[in-house]
Amino acid sequence: MGVNFQMSLKRNKGNLHVNPKGNFDGSSACELVNLLHEQFDGKGCVFINTENFHEICPFGCSTFQCRLNQNRVPADRLFFRGKNGFKLAPEGSKVIAPPLNRSRKKLFLKGE
Fold first, then answer.
1. 15-24 and 46-49 as β-strands: parallel, antiparallel, unpaired?
2. Cβ(27)–Cβ(48) under 8 Å?
3. Domain layout of the chain by residue ranges
4. Given 17, 33, 38, 50, which is the most exposed site by the fewest CB atoms within 10 A?
5. pTM score of the predicted model
6. Which residue in 37, 103, 112, 98 sits closest to 9, CA to CA?
7. Distance CA 43, CA 29 (A)
8. CA 100 to chain CA mean position, Å
9. What is the pLDDT along the chain (112 residues), one digit of tens a residue?
10. Contact status, residue 101 vs residue 83, Cβ threshold 8 Å
């Protein structure tokens, strides 16, 4: 794992919540993919908070999208929280981003 990258995770009501923080590069992407492949049990959804990234490398995003095995973690079970989710989210996943007026969160499907 990169020096400037850390992850924490918790389970809640059958869902997996991942909170990565730091710089997101190719190495960080591999660590996140490995964590998802090891921890996702096929039940519930996976929520990934993208708000605590300092820098997001385009190579890290493409590495994450290419290495994620959607047979193990289906895209329709992935939810990315925060505006950075649009950079990471593979096709078929969802992004929960804050709206411009901050009164309600809005769910976006990747590809809309």
1. parallel
2. no
3. 5-109
4. 38
5. 0.85
6. 37
7. 22
8. 21
9. 456 899 999 999 999 999 999 999 999 999 999 999 999 999 999 999 999 999 999 999 999 999 999 999 999 999 999 989 999 999 999 999 877 665 555 566 665 5
10. no
